[in-house]
Amino acid sequence: MPVASARRSAMTPSSVARWAARGKRAGPAHLSEAADIRHDAGVSAGDDARRTLPSLDRLLGTDAGMALLRAHRRETVVSVLREVLAAARAAGHDGAMPAADGLIDEAARRLGEVAAPRLVPVVNATGICLHTNLGRATLPDAALVALLTAATGPTNLELDLDTGRRGDRNALVADDLCALTGAEDALVVNNNAAGVLLALNTLAAGRDVLVSRGELVEIGGSFRVPDVMAKSGARLHEVGTTNRTHADDYRRAAGPATAAILRVHASNYRIVGFTAAPALAEMVALARDAGVPLIEDLGSGALVDLAPYGVPDEPVVRAHVAAGVDLVLASGDKLLGGPQAGIVVGRRALVSALRSNPLFRALRASKLVLAALAATLRLYRTAPDLPAALPVLGWLARPLDELERVGRAAAAALSARLGPEYAIELVPSTCEIGGGAAPGVELPSRALALRHRHLGAEQVAARLRRARPAVVGRVHEGRLLLDLRGIRDGAELDVELAGD
Could you give the domains of the chain? Predict the structure, then answer.
């Protein structure tokens, strides 16, 4: 056997991975399959090692190549094989070329990465109930059924079944929202920022909107209220100071150019100490005196009083509608416990104006969002035990003795997976609501504290993030804490660990 052939045959899949890494910058060869054969045939005598590479057609014709074609689209297989061949050519300066089996193995690995889902399950052990990075509220079972129904066949999304004529998709949720909030009318857009954008563009484009300097908040992802206002076409008119704003500040600022007053609930921050802000009743009276609507961004979207669940002072949408706020804006995926959505409720004339804005079509919710939201809202109207029906309320209501039972079972499951080098201890903990809701409110909880004999806490955290499903905790005082409030049972931590 020639020396080059012997070296090629001896290469293992790990060897293939090494040369693939060396040649990953080469990129795909943009040639037809026939051109790949001509390319191989045209290699100079000085490149004998490269000439030993099998052609693309030859690889596709092997049993393993045919298996790839049966499992994946032909275009994708061809593209990936070209990348693999290009990497082999680029890394072939050492004279070692992989055999067909090694090339196919590398292509299969890359195709597996292409086919793998990007959105994967995660165990939320962070101690943040509504974690924005992890998708906020977990949907109730009724919403999952509604999603599946809407996704797998035609629905009456915009069809009035009584008349046979075109219907209004917001009618699917408007009645429930009005019943739950006491509002005259309601509509739904794709998130709360969209609701703010639509309201300001409709009611205040080219005019002034009064906002306290203490309410010019930034929410997740660097989205800021002033930026949303600027995109709406409304002009921001700041009043008061960061920590103290009085009713007279609004009165002095109001004038012929004023179109609305915007009140932004402190849903993700707290200003404490020497502070002042007009009460809600004062704000309603200010807007009436100025002859402009009061728009309130409540953010968290609580539909019921959460004080019994350990979250005091969180505003309830119904109470603010009853107080006279003209438009109330809220999120669907925070304390309401539904899908991501922007909920707008209030006076009929104002909601109707928003609905007539052409921008509404660009911001409207999809049938899947409406299906999940409608099912969630019906639970608020019909379920006798809301914490049992709504995961977000169930998380808040869990007693500590239940968390301790879960912790003991989870510790046993995790210890069996991790091995003797890990110490696992059940410890007291605190968790927070998160997701831009109830800042500063901490709930007592329990957590598993993990330590390794040699690895640091960040390394342990990284290892669990690579598990299947991924486990996301928080590092605190040199330990990895896995908070148990969001873990239903010990089996959730019986995870499959990836190799280090």
Answer: 3-115 (no CATH), 122-130+397-493 (3.90.1150.180), 141-389 (3.40.640.10)
Q: Which amino acid, one-letter code, is at 9? A: S
Give the list of residues 6+ apart from residue 112 with CB closer than 8 angstroms, or none. none
Q: What is the mean pLDDT of residues 74-103?
A: 86
Q: How far apart are CA 432 and CA 311, in angstroms?
A: 10
Cα distance between residue 437 and residue 269, in whole Å: 9
pTM for the whole structure: 0.85
Distance of CA 188 to the CA centre of its chain: 19
Is the Cβ–Cβ distance between 400 and 444 less than 8 Å?
A: yes
What beta strand segments (E) does 253-311 contain?
Answer: 258-264, 294-299
Nearest to residue 283, comparing CAs of 294, 299, 297?
294
For the chain, how far is it from start to end, CA to CA, in angstroms?
Answer: 39
Q: Which residues contact 398 (CB under 8 A, 6 or more apart)?
A: 485
The token duo for 14 is 């790990």
Distance CA 246, CA 488 (A): 46
What does the pLDDT read at residue 34? 44
As a whole number of angstroms, the distance between CA 444 and CA 435 comes to 18
CB atoms under 10 Å from CB of 285, counted, come to 15
Structure tokens, 233: 């076409």
Band of the pLDDT at 267, cuts 50, 70, 90? low
**Degrees (nearest 5) of the Cα angle 53, 58, 64?**
105
3-state secondary structure 175-209: HHHHHHHCCCEEEEECCHHHHHHHHHHHHHCCCEE
Helices and strands counted in the chain (H then E): 22, 15
Verify cis geometry, omega within 30 degrees of 0, for the bond prior to 439: no
Report CA torsion sign: 202, 206, 207, 210: positive
Strand partners, 262: 295
**Stretch (H or E) spanning 149:** helix 141-151
Whole-angstrom distance, CA of residue 71 vs CA of residue 83? 18
Task: Say yes or no to pLDDT of 268 above 90.
Answer: no
Phi, psi (deg, nearest 5) at residue 264: -115, 120
CA 132 vs CA 40, 43, 129, 334, 429: distances in Å: 52, 54, 9, 9, 21
